[in-house]
Amino acid sequence: MPPGPPVVVYPPAEDGGRRVRVGDHFFGMAYGPLDVVDFLRRAGIEEADRAYVTQSRRIEWRGGGPGVWERHYG
Hints:
23% strand; 4 strands; alpha+beta; 4-stranded mixed β-sheet
């Protein structure tokens, strides 16, 4: 894993938003990859862009990867 605090993007909520945590801090609800980019930049990860969000091993995507933004019922 790359250096720095781990990033966790949680499974989609009922409204499709996904909580984003960097280290021990929650940054908010993301409703798409660009929201994740914004949160990462606010956390000091300046290299964050859309490609970084979709490819970085630093990000743990729970409940689906960067293309999943709606809750699946099953």
